[in-house]
């Protein structure tokens, strides 16, 4: 059966290319599964259209394809490519650029150069982090998109639509957050969707289903991640607008899934460790909100990346699993390309 | 005799735990010696009470214990644990949190999560820096505490008591510093105490004694470090308030001891090299004061860490000594946990 | 012949010392050639005198010599030393300090300590980056000079002459850039000279000649680099003052040469890859202009360093050449000192 599939893939390069890209979409959430990827793209399209920002969905797809094509041009190893490991960061760059910059022809050129560069940066950071056998995660997207956003301030023809105005940080003040249970649930689902810069709870729900298709553990941990992060941020008195938009949730979702079932087996000690990592992700999220305020760029998924690196590097004996092995009820493959 | 001691330790886990934690206090200054550690804790208690901030001393002890317990839960290697190498960074996190945040029950939860995370970060950074066989030094404390301080700006219920207000840097102006010899000596002693965020010259004196108990070289180099740094900062026209509070001294103290007698043998070339490193630490201190001004956080011991890394990494033939060997008149052990 | 030369060098330490330093000047542009170095120094002298800032040229030479002497004192490997690999970063530190700080006796002390430290930092960063077999490039200069500039804000007696005032970034606005072909050509030549912080088109021309003496590929790529960067920055609507002063050109020049003919052989795929790297360098330049605005320091050659690292680390099969091999019509040696 596997043999047949492989043969079929070889025989149909177009089908293989589509499969590769769908897996790329799934790999944003560590899922090496084209159906998960397709559902995730559906969630992005839904959210983008609902927000009257179709360019965000188009950008995500264009970024994904540009990144994958760049990887092919650079002759990366085929196994990693086919698992979608060169698609997920460019997809996010492609979603970020039209979210924050005006929809002009020049923006699309900027996006494509950015997505191609994201693939180069993926290869570069993979070389660096392989030294300690941890993956580069979504940091190629974060780093490249930080450069692209910061640079936009200096180019009159690349105009900014919605970056926060640079300002000195102030301690948060203002009203207590007063949310109903329904509001809370909506915020938590938005937290899942915000992984893809989508502010829509239906999209969040679709993404949870997409995860469950491949791994029930991943879906459960994503849900726990956004619940913990949203309650914690609300409980500590974080800015109400950010909490309700799910902006404290998305990095925590990724940390919970990564630490809880992707890079370790989900045992009780691991789950406790992943919980500490998820709590710390919320602190890092808040910290980056402060640190980046003077330069007017969002933290993207950096809180997830920093917290997950710090919790993966200790390599404690919490029954880690090799990245290339399958776990659970799904086929969660490793997320770091082979060198 | 060693055998008996080891047996005694095994027989009395409570005593071993206390010994471990006292060594942890000593290791902030690279001293693997429980008496040094006890005297250092005395200095911290003295300074905290004198400043009517007992929570700083309590926080230091709580952080030390929480960090050590976390290390035990993560089953780190026993030899490093028993040398106190998992205690010193959480101790500093525990002193920093109540120094800058209001004394509320929530602050204590924040502190304990912070101290536990500091241990995880110690393991992570040790993995990274072992690549070049240099220790992580106090950077786990610095990094974790930066996150905690920056995050506090975003949480209404974690209120800030004394962080500097974020502002754009300006060239220092104002009056010439006019200090008597006695003022200078006081400032220099405060420089030693500020390693532990303590603004008290008596505490500085106690810490010098604590060092001398274990290593006369360490005590002498600490004294030279604070003298050089204070005179240099005053001579270059640094802000008078910072100089008199010893804020230019503490990182220089650590660099002088680290380069002068901990990681190298104190020969003349080494002492000259350590002097250049100490001078550079003062520049890095001033640089970070500027760079961190817009985000309102202190540099902590980062100037020591950055300067010492840069001066250790060249691994010149200045008679370096292996970290696990004893030197001098004391038992200065290496400060980087075994991977 | 080579044997005779070597013998001659051994016999005349003063001549060898001068040769070493001239190669150091050449290595800023990756040229292991004393004539190239001499012409570059001529260009710096010309530009400094034209700007009535002779201290910049004197500083460059003093920094070069101080850095080389420090390397000799630290007994670095002779082969790397003789290729000038310990001279180029201190030379740049020596040019930067009098460009931005007032010309006082204290400034010269500051410069010499800075240049000596740059050599220590060169050794440190070489140790780190050897892990991935990429060179430290000019980052020792960048890092040390960032510290020196930031520190100057805190020292009343080290007064700043021309650093940009710290401010929050704003999107660039203002008039369209309206340049004649002659203006454009002048700006592009200034872009080459700005590698050495020189704002003079004649100096740029001399440097192109200096490159051609050693490698026609390097000269051609430097020209292409500044043309692409200047046109791109102007086309995207960057600040007119920066574009005309060549400030978008200098890092791109270095990236184009480094990726196009120093670390890879100049084949078509390599040239395309180098072009993407050069474009990305312009984005990083703009990004750092934004990110560094609140702390009032220039980006120096950091855009070149970051972009070149990211494009070297992937180590794609684009016919890379070993750093110690000669290429092309010249003798372009590797730029990373042997560990």
Textual characterization of the structure:
The structure is a homotrimer of 339-residue chains. The first copy, chain A, has helices spanning 2-11, 13-27, 34-50, 54-73, 78-82, 88-100, 105-130, 139-152, 181-193, 201-214, 216-236, 240-244, 250-262, 268-292, 302-312. Chain A folds into two domains: 12-152, Ammonium transporter fold (Orthogonal Bundle), CATH 1.10.3430.10; 183-326, Ammonium transporter fold. The first copy, chain A, starts with a helix and ends in a 27-residue tail after the last helix. The longest helix of chain A is centred in the middle third of the chain and has 26 residues, at 105-130. Chain A is mainly alpha-helical and 339 residues long. Chains in contact: A-B, A-C, B-C. Chain A binds chain B through residues 131-132, 168-174, 235-239, 276, 279-280, 283-291, 293-294, 309-317, and chain B through 74-75, 106, 113, 116-117, 120-121, 123-125, 127-128, 131, 146-160, 166-168, 294-296. Chains A, B, C: InterPro entries: Ammonium/urea_transptr (IPR029020), Urea_transporter (IPR004937), Urea_transporter_bac (IPR017807). Chains A, B, C: GO terms for molecular function: urea transmembrane transporter activity. Chains A, B, C: Pfam families: UT. Chains A, B, C: The chain crosses the membrane at residues 30-49, 55-73, 107-129, 136-155, 192-211, 218-237, 243-263, 270-288, 294-313. Chains A, B, C: Keywords: Cell membrane, Membrane, Transmembrane, Transmembrane helix.
